[in-house]
Amino acid sequence: MKLLVIDIQKGITDNRLYNFESFIDNTKRIIDAARANQIEVIYFQHDDGPGTGFSIGDEDFEIANQVTPMDEEKVFVKDINSCFGNEEFVDYIKNEDTLIVVGLQTNFCVDATVKSAFERGYKVIIPQGANSTFDNDYMTGEVTYKYYNDMMWPERFATCMSVEDAIIYLKQ
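Below the sequence we write its predicted structure tokens.
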């Protein structure tokens, strides 16, 4: 079992996110529980490419202060939505069976990773309230969040459970 912390980066981690404070609190609780139970925490950073302001060397690219990795924790960089676009990561977790997924953004990198993991045979766990996104031209961040967490992922691609149940799951 591994915990994937996806794209919680300085440039997109702020109060524009749906349910921002709760998202940060829930995510920190999951990370702390994983660490307390010797579950490896793996971080991801999305790189939009040089000159975008959201690339290696840019302040906005850095992992947000609220969820700073420990020195020994792995950090992978990706340039497509799914974490599985990073071949080093794919090789690293090839013997795992369960992935717990938290992070940003619900409708982009989190969704792409959830579906990619499912297609590869992983059991995917989504702690509710530990992913978020912004309003867009079609839906509010809240509607987008609920669409994926309440309708799209459960019983199809992932097991969605409360943060409290996810913390208990991490102790198994």
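The radius of gyration is 15 Å.
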